[in-house]
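Entry 14. Ran structure prediction on the chain below.
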Amino acid sequence: MSRLFRNNRNLSVAAFSFLFAYLMSFLFEGRVLYSTIEAFGAQAESYIFTSIIAHFAGLFSCGYFIKAQRQAKRSMLIYMAVCLLATVPFFFAPSALWNVGLTVAGFAAGWAVAAWGFFLKAHTPKRERIKTCADVLICSNLLMIAINVVTEYTSHGIGIILSMLCLIIGGVLTLPLPDESEQSNETVQEPERAAIGSIKTPMLVLFLFVTIITIDSGLMYQVINPAFEHLTGLVSWYWAVPYIAALAFMRNLSPKNRVQRSLFLYVGMGMIMAAFITFMLLGRSAGDYLVVDTLMLGACGIFDLFWWSIIGETLDYSKNPARVLGVGLSANVLGVLLGGILGSVVTSINLGKAEVAVIALSVVCVTLVILPPLNRQLTMLLKNHAYLSAYADMSEKQQSAVIHQVKLIDPLTEKENEVLTLILAGKSNKGIAAAMSISESTVKFHVSNIYSKYDVGSRAELISTLLKNQAKA
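Output, structure tokens:
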């Protein structure tokens, strides 16, 4: 065990997993929080929304104050201690301290989660961050299941103690993490340096996509889960099983299957649609729950790993990974909040199951519209995106074949061929100019000619055209 934690990557994964287990088992619509509210006969809705809003604020704001890894470590330790103290009032009857506790703990947990971005960037190589993200989500969900089961068969008080124990263990594991990054201080390199100016647009599109698709998750919490509340024993252990299975499957796909991985986004959308349709058509038995939950949580696993891994890869485009991770994950929280509000409205006006399904399907249709432009934006942002990664893995002979695959009426000149090769290597205009010892304006001239000859309007279209033609060859 001690050998396992000598690796900073494993140590950071373990520390964050325990922090996140507390978040999911108690703070963020967790089973322990619901059991506590039910035990005291309180109204859940106001407490739940208080926690979510505070958590969103913590995630979103952290990166604007935390500027270095030393600060990130200190913040994680301080805010885990704050969460610990803020959870104490829930051993007692409902009072104003409950709302205070949820507000403080929600904000503090959001801050601690965002601060972990420094350790994700520092201790996991860029191409392996999808595995680290999958590992923390899998481990934290396994811990959450264990806490849920114990809570179900003992008491909410025991559940609170276990949730708090996760915070303590997370803090202990955070202590040995290094104060400074093992990487060079010059963290933003070519072609990332030239791309910083363009990160805002693709990240904004990603934020919009994540927010909208997770509205259905909020609906699930407010509409689907209450419909099966009579199956508490089954729900306590099975709820996250399909989620974990989807994460494990996506984690272990070959790195060469990046294109296939992106196709699973459409599979996930289909699963969400099927989940709400089956919820509308089926009854409320244990078998019906297994069908609906498997579809819904399996889709959630696919989507969560998608945006966690995308956010993980974009950490190298900023000197402040806490801001990138915090703002990125806050989109998920915002979507759940909006979905929860929508679910509350649906419940209050007694909409039928068919109407709920229509609302959920409409959300999916909107995300289907957003997905193609999102893919185009991410293609040029991420050097290791499916197309660029596929090109990098080819031999020189195959790379040459890609460039010459399309028959052009007006062939490329020698300089244009050289520029095209560097484009496919992920170089920015500035990087190409440096590599070829020419001016950036000359590079732009060559790039314009290449676009014209291939009849495309952007690098994303150019790369897509070249590699799709290679796939057909």
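The two ends are 50 Å apart (CA to CA). Will compare against last week's run tomorrow.
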